[in-house]
Design a protein that fits this description.
425 residues; alpha+beta; 6-stranded mixed beta sheet
Length: 425
């Protein structure tokens, strides 16, 4: 009979094994990492390009390039591309982030020879038709107009802009930026950024030898090398600021609160340990901010804190939406909880709970070959190796209450945070 009185035996997580990829350097200059595992006849291929040549006067250009990448080539219209991919049951989509533009293909292995030529055609000949660009701009402007009515969106934009200025991390797109978007700008950026010598490819899934061989041979024969331009990579402005930014909205029922400051990235030795401190403060549902401001005071439905590690900068953020009348009390409680971490030693029980949460979350996030590839990609673009996960596990397991006090006093400082309040303040 199942014993419901005694809890199951606890087994601490000592290590987390991530699949190590095979690596190749293609003759056209592209780098390829291959993760082979899984039972389903399925592969995912990701072509990842660094964002280059960011121009302050064209802040939406990189996002527009990503969104319009599949909107037609010299040979095929966007409709033909979409119908061809659908016919073979594949999935092709672009992604944009602050650091990268990527093109992602998921397909059954036996159809790779049918869909890969379509992708290579896009990589060589994306045409950015004016009609599709007009449609994109019209939709993007409408979407922006709607988004800017939301307090949380405005608060995020204001905080990022306060920390990173007019660089790609801090850009605040406006409707007129889409009006100024020219097809020739997209073509120029495509020529500068989308080519093999600055591309990293991640192939994952049930990759038998012929799949990887076919991919390599196809890319080497049909996607030719080009020289990187001498345009510098995007420069990131970083600002140590304690600004208080208020966007008053008299009819708002809630206020969006964002507190943030520059912090350390994944490549810093303290990063795993600081993740523990962050989790204690606001990094999961049982955190102190949630227990105090949601469960005890009832000011909000949710509040969280996050360490955001980008390729060229990092920041730490607290985010919530509260009833407008609770804006000032919420700020006081956030300051109070940060002070507690700096002054009072955390109990062994609470610290163990957070350690188990962090390591359990990491372990639970690695459940298929695609997630293994994602974990590798995460550390790869931070300049790290898979050894990072051993280091992470060791650091989290080794944290003591004294370490928490030390780190909280080193990295947390309420008075040095930028405050953004959007709503009825």
């Amino acid at each position: 009979m199942l014993n419901r009185i005694n809890p199951p035996v606890f087994h601490p997580i000592e290590n987390i094994n991530i699949l190590s990829p095979e690596s190749f350097k293609l003759s056209n200059g592209a780098k390829l990492f291959v993760f082979s595992a899984g039972e389903q006849d399925l592969v995912r291929i990701q072509w990842v390009f660094n964002n280059r040549s960011f121009q302050k006067d064209k802040p939406v250009l990189h996002a527009a390039l990503s969104a319009n990448l599949m909107e037609g080539t010299a040979k095929h219209s966007s409709a033909v591309i979409a119908e061809s991919i659908d016919y073979y049951g594949a999935f092709l989509y672009p992604e944009f982030s602050y650091d990268h533009i990527s093109l992602n293909l998921i397909t059954i292995s036996k159809h790779l020879d049918k869909v890969l030529p379509i992708v290579i055609d896009i990589l060589n000949n994306a045409a950015f038709p004016q009609q599709e660009l007009n449609t994109y701009c019209r939709n993007a402007k409408q979407g922006l107009k709607i988004s800017l009515k939301k307090n949380d969106v405005v608060a995020r934009r204001e905080l990022n802009h306060a920390l990173f200025g007019k660089s790609i991390y801090g850009v605040k797109a406006e409707e007129e930026d889409y009006d100024a978007l020219q097809r020739t700008d997209l073509v120029s950026l495509f020529e500068d950024q989308i080519h093999p010598s600055d591309c990293t490819i991640f192939l994952s899934g049930k990759v038998a030898g012929p799949v990887a061989d076919y991919l390599i041979q196809s890319l080497e024969k049909q996607w030719h090398a080009k020289e990187l331009s001498k345009v510098n990579d995007s420069v990131i402005e970083v600002r140590e600021t304690t600004d208080k930014i208020v966007v008053q909205r008299e009819k708002a029922l809630q206020t969006a609160i964002r507190l943030g400051k520059l912090s350390i990235g994944r490549d810093h030795p303290d990063f795993p340990s600081l993740q523990v401190v962050n989790a204690l403060l606001g990094g999961f549902f049982g955190s102190r901010l949630m227990a105090n401001i949601r469960e005890d005071k009832g000011y909000t439905y949710g509040i969280g804190s996050h360490l955001v590690s980008l390729q060229k900068a990092a920041y730490w953020i607290i985010a919530t939406e509260v009833g407008a009348e609770f804006t000032s009390p919420t700020l006081k409680e956030i300051e109070y909880e940060m002070g507690r971490l700096q002054q009072e030693a955390v109990s062994t029980e609470e610290l163990s709970l957070v350690k188990n949460y962090l390591l359990g979350s990491l372990l639970g996030s690695v459940n298929d070959v695609f997630s293994h590839a994602d974990k590798f990609r995460q550390v790869y673009f931070s300049g790290l190796s898979l050894d990072y996960y051993d280091y992470y596990t060791e650091q989290v397991n080794g944290m003591t209450p004294e370490d928490v006090l030390s780190l909280a006093n080193t990295y947390l400082d309420f008075d040095k945070m930028t405050q953004v309040l959007v709503g009825r303040v």
